[in-house]
Structures are given as structure tokens and as C-alpha cells.
Amino acid sequence: MSQLEIKDLHISIGDKPIVKGLSLTIRQGEVHAIMGPNGTGKSTLAKAIAGHPDYTITGGDVLIEGKSILEMEPDERARAGIFLAFQYPSEIPGVTIANFIRAALQARMAEGEELDATGYYKRLYSKMDLLKIDRKFTSRAVNEGFSGGEKKRCEILQMAMLEPAFALMDETDSGLDIDALRIVAEGVNTLRGEKLGVLMITHYQRLLNYIVPDFVHVMYDGRIVKSGDKSLALELEAKGYDWVKKELVA
Ligand code: ADP
Ligand code: MG
User: Which one of 16, 18, 78, 241 has the fewest beta carbons within 10 angstroms of its own beta carbon?
Assistant: First the structure.
């Protein structure tokens, strides 16, 4: 059983410190939710862990099975087991979902190794059945003209095929899209299991109507200020983020 360990992490964008000493350990099999108001650094955390070049780690460490991943390129991090679902996924006109996922799997293989096409489609279709995705879906171009829900469905399918050890899922902050929320939750609930660790990032307590995390963390001003189980999310729903802010001041 592997674990993703975030240790006293500090992240800056340019000269501006955004994440200010955040520690969190996610084991395979666990679902963690990070909740917090807008601008708190939730997306920054996910992108920096995945290796986005705009974010500078100024302190702390991120380890998988005790080994730091900070010197790794984004593709090496993916091979080490990290999957980042983007908050705003890009469109890739002309590239079908089926070919995109196939290329992603091929890229992870050793040089000279060839992905078996028949086996690939068999696995793709079985995952689509599992996730109740229509066969027609994978012949569409990646994210082109997709609704919020379709973008999320595309991500969940990528995740099912890549079988990461740790999935970082950044929920959309703008425009409450219940359809998208439900698709992500159903996908995560289906893929949930002892080989998958999930970090669910969300602004909305409502997510917890669809998915029951093992741990809930409240992030405020670049730090985790409170951790608990799912009851913490209900408390947040009832009292709002102001409650956390007031406790911090007191
Ligand atoms: P959250 O996901 O919790 O809403 P973000 O991680 O997106 O928060 O943003 C945290 C802070 O970093 C905000 O103050 C935001 O304005 C700033 N920020 C995010 N991305 C950038 C960027 N590319 N350049 C400059 N500032 C940014
Ligand atoms: Mg965000």
C-alpha cells in the first residue's frame, strides 16, 4: 500500500506565497476532501503536485512511498502514480477521446513496447460499461464543445484507464453544475477501492451529498486549519466558512 505524503509544503506564484505550510498524507484506498473558500490555494496545491511549471515550491516536500517527486517532470510524476483532473480541461480538436487515452497509455510504456490495439479497445469498452458511458462518446474530439458534465465524464474515463494510485480532482468553482458534480461523484464511487487514493478539491459542501469522503480538511489562506471526518463537512454546510475564520481569530 503506497502513500502520497505532503509535508509542510510551501508554494509561490511568482513572489507571492499561496500555500503556506500544508501537510497531508493520503493512502491508497482513502478519499480525502479539501474544502475551502475561493482563492485559498486549493487549485495551486493540486497543480503544483502534478508539476505545473507556473508554481514554485519554496519549502517542504511531496513524497510517494517515501521518495520525493519534486525533481520529477510532470510525465514522470504521472508514471509514479499521480493523476490530475483539471479544473478547466483543454480542448484538443481533431483528436478523439479513444486515441487520446491510447496515446497517454502508450507514452507510459517503455521504449519499443507497443500497446496492443485489440486489448486496448476491449479494456476501454469494459471501463465504459462500468462507468455507463455511451460507446459513441469516445469517437468525439477531446473536450470539443463538451458540456461541464461531458468534460468530467471524459476525465473519469481517463482516470479509469490510467489507473493512477493517486487522483487529484479539482472541482469547478464557477457556475454550480450539479450534472458535473454528480458525474464526478458517481465515477469516483465506482472507481473507489484499495488501489486508489483520492484528493477531492471542492468549494461546495454539496459534493458530500454524492460522495462520502473518509477525511475532510478545511483549507484557509494556504493552510489546512481543520481536519475531521464527513461530519465536518455537514458542520461547514450548516455554519459556513465564516465559522472557521472566526475560530482562527479567537
Ligand atoms: P482556489 O482554488 O482555492 O480558489 P487558487 O489556488 O486558484 O485558489 O488561487 C490562490 C491564489 O493564487 C489566489 O489569490 C489567486 O488569485 C492566485 N493565483 C492563482 N493562479 C495564479 C496565477 N497563474 N498567477 C497569479 N496568481 C494566481
Ligand atoms: Mg480552484
Answer: 16
